[in-house]
Amino acid sequence: DPEKVKKKKFWWFTNSPTVIVMVGLPARGKTYISKKLARYLNWIGVNTAVFNLGQYRREAVQTYKNYEFFRPDNEEAMKIRRNCASNALTDIGAYFTKEQGQVAVFDATNTTRERRGLILSFAKEKGYKVFFVESVCDDPDIIEQNIMQVKLSSPDYENCDKEEALEDFLKRIECYKMTYVPLDEEKDRHLSYIKIFNVGSRYLVNRVQDHIQSRIVYYLMNIHVTPRSIYLSRHGESDLNLLGRIGGDSGLSTRGQMYASALAAFVQSQSIRDLKVWTSHMKRTIQTAEALGVPYEQWKALNEIDAGMCEEMTYEEIQGHHPEEFALRDQDKYRYRYPKGESYEDMVHRLEPVIMELERQENVLVICHQAVMRCLLAYFLDKSADELPYLRCPLHTVLKLTPVAYGCKVESIFLNVQAVNTHREKPPNVDINRKTEDALQTVPEHV
Amino acid sequence: MCVCVCVFEDCPFRFENCKKQHGVDDNKKSSVILVAVVLCPQSCPLRRDREQVGVAAVLRTRICTSRPETTSVLRRDAAMRGSKRCRRDRPVCMTNCPTLIVMVGLPARGKTYISKKLTRYLNWIGVPTKEFNVGQYRRECLKIYKNFEFFRPDNEEGLKIRRQCALSALNDVRQYLCMEGGQVAVFDATNTTRERRDTITRFAEQNGFKVFFVESVCEDPDVIAENIVQVKLGSPDYIDCNTEEAVADFMKRIKCYENSYQPLDEGLDRELSYIKIMDVGRRYLVNRVLDHIQSRIVYYLMNIHITPRSIYLCRHGESDLNVRGRIGGDSGLTSRGKEYAKSLGHFIQEQNIKDLKVWTSQMKRTIQTAEALAVPYEQWKALNEIDAGVCEEMMYEEIQEHFPLEFALRDQDKYRYRYPKGESYEDLVQRLEPVIMELERQENVLVICHQAVMRCLLAYFLDKSAEELPYLKCPLHTVLKLTPVAYGCKVESIFLNVEAVNTHRDKPENVDISRPTEEALLTVPAHQ
């Protein structure tokens, strides 16, 4: 009986959907947090979507004139804004019921008790859980930095020059300040929320209801906005790479060792402050790190995907011995688990602590493996489960990720040491009865 | 000649495997190639020193000291990590400086409960932690407790003794963190005045420790009363008192502290790192979390609760491979195993447990066991049995025949030993940590798992050391009911009256790698 026996795969699936409600004056990082949180939750497998009220408003009003729209005595505008909020809530309902959404982030100022009350009634009626995330900041430098980074380039200010835009936006903030009622320790003691003060120097957490809220709090307490870069790279070319064999624990080839030296030179040239270096437990990443001559940390979690029965085989051999498995993998590369091995889905799971620590850290160089790097990259670049297993992570190339505005800037630096290609595209024919040539069509060349 | 690989002088494989594995050109004399120690084969007994502890592992690149070029690198590495030389038998942790956790709060606010629980958790995940309870120092100093008057703020003599005890405890903290390889010390005392906390902060600064305050604030009289009944009445202080006397005295004791209590203040203490726990976890204020270990501590503290509940641990029913004396694999239940599953179903019914959650692994035998309960259950990959790698589905006799060296090494250090292409108990603890965290969040849970997994979970709840853990007895067809009580856990063992094969192999006397076969197989349980 499928109803009786609920076989949930991951413990963080909550029975009722959760609405995360952002609270805070403009330029307090609400959208930054919304997007980052959604990216994290989606990556760990919790279907999450962001509903940004500003976008609804832009669709309703088409052209933004100036801050007067946000004056609390602007009746007409108030009506439009209330409508937008209703529409957004309706869409949230649809997301949960029709699109299997589990978490919706309602990204708006939600600065009045009245507006929050509206959301709470809506959620109560439908049986959704509500968790508030309030960002409080009174540091004028942070606010200005914020405005410069993301507001000036907003569609609202397309035709304004910087000073005009800044001035208008500050007046906009004043409009909200008049009616802002922050979450109150006393009056709101029955609500579930986290209050973030000054970009994370202090947090107030109230009534965490369940696992997903606990994870959200943990995540929010680990992220920061200090500028830094994350460098992702694979190990140098290995002996098994050359032979076209997957997995295993081989050492570096000559070219691989050359890459390691080149990597050392690159790292030096970048003059990175307090760089941390992480590797896996496998020889090839450790040998690569050794060439850098700096302390490094080994993470078992960064080990390459375990190919189980197919360890150290070539794709030709896999096709020869396990043609059905080979086809099944092509059908759903993200969820497919090698017999006695792992899937990409398993890997995301085991990489979660690595991601959490990457969020805590500042400048880090991660020397890892193809599948691992794809998972990490998918997290930073918000790639879906379908795209993830086909992301290009060639050998001897460093990807430098720098958080900027709401996303990540990526620079790809090839260190000029040739290496074999290990990227196998999805072949057009994924049928289990396909011919051998069709199966091996996209296998990269090897010795 | 190439530089040596395995840096441990007494590793038996040092010179042989080195040359084979890193394949460095013998003519490259000039460059010092520091090839990682992990190149040593699985069977090297010293390998374990380099394995992972906690979330991340740090490779201690100790280098052959025979070459002068290498020692300078070692010096540079040592300098980068701080002046402490890593000890051979313990890997260096991620955080370079030890952490001093300082409890803050009036009496009966759960400080000792939190200290002990936190210490237990940190030790289980591999962070050496010890708690220092100032009350114990006071009892040793005073011998006999008369009454609350000792704690009166105007009792000069009392204050002197209490200050001495605190300093004595801090001394022991220093000893533990600097000399005995401790990583975290929990200073369990009221620490209710700013003055006392400043003393501690200064002490920590002088010694290079990070400080993290954990304050417990509670005004609910019911919670406080329950607290007093559960743990204070049984305290050595009140051994000769009846309940009323003890409660009255203790309430007066609390009063003595109340007047001088200066809670951590959002304004005045904004530079400190702390978590304020309010009303037993309803609300938290977290300020300036500095590093990973503090972040983990905060996460843990935010997930524990004191709602009464029970955790039921048991293994799957007897499996086909069990009966044949084979380890690992993914076999189904025998007929006795199925009978057990049915009995388990009845047992659960009888116990009448409120909102019971049932968890299994993703292996057939636990799933089949859960199926018989006819209630919803959740599968956790993390609850899968330890991966025995190349020894999967072998009998102990076969392991002894094919891998006698591995078999002996495992007996020498069962906790850290990793099966080739498999896992160690140490790895298991790591992968079970999210399960433990979720068990802390939940209330009534039945976990249907496997022998090694159950040993790890049990070791967490019963505070067993890494040495004891792999030999904890977890027989088939027996449910362990764990109920948190006072500062620990009550255990009830319930055998469900269905016979099963014994799968427990004790540590044999002879663990030498050259031991004869009979001695290796001495403790193997009987099987078909």
Automatic annotation (TrEMBL), chain A:
One of its GO terms (biological process) is fructose 2,6-bisphosphate metabolic process. The active site is at H235, E304. GO terms for cellular component: 6-phosphofructo-2-kinase/fructose-2,6-biphosphatase complex. Transmembrane segments: none annotated. The keyword ATP-binding applies. Residues 13-227 form the 6-phosphofructo-2-kinase domain. The keyword Cytoplasm does not apply. Substrate binds at R234, H235, G236, E237, S238, D239, L240, N241, R284. Keywords: ATP-binding, Hydrolase, Kinase, Multifunctional enzyme, Nucleotide-binding, Phosphoprotein, Transferase. One of its GO terms (molecular function) is ATP binding. It holds the Pfam family His_Phos_1. InterPro entries: 6Pfruct_kin, 6Phosfructo_kin, His_Pase_superF_clade-1, His_PPase_superfam, P-loop_NTPase, PG/BPGM_mutase_AS. Synthesis and degradation of fructose 2,6-bisphosphate. Homodimer. In the C-terminal section; belongs to the phosphoglycerate mutase family. This is 6-phosphofructo-2-kinase domain-containing protein. It comes from Denticeps clupeoides (denticle herring).
Automatic annotation (TrEMBL), chain B:
In the C-terminal section; belongs to the phosphoglycerate mutase family. GO terms for cellular component: cytosol. The active site is at H316, E385. It comes from the Eukaryota. SMART domains: PGAM. GO terms for molecular function: 6-phosphofructo-2-kinase activity; ATP binding; fructose-2,6-bisphosphate 2-phosphatase activity. This is 6-phosphofructo-2-kinase domain-containing protein. Keywords: ATP-binding, Hydrolase, Kinase, Multifunctional enzyme, Nucleotide-binding, Phosphoprotein, Transferase. The gene is LOC114800842. Substrate binds at R315, H316, G317, E318, S319, D320, L321, N322, R365. GO terms for biological process: fructose 2,6-bisphosphate metabolic process; fructose metabolic process. Residues 94-308 form the 6-phosphofructo-2-kinase domain.
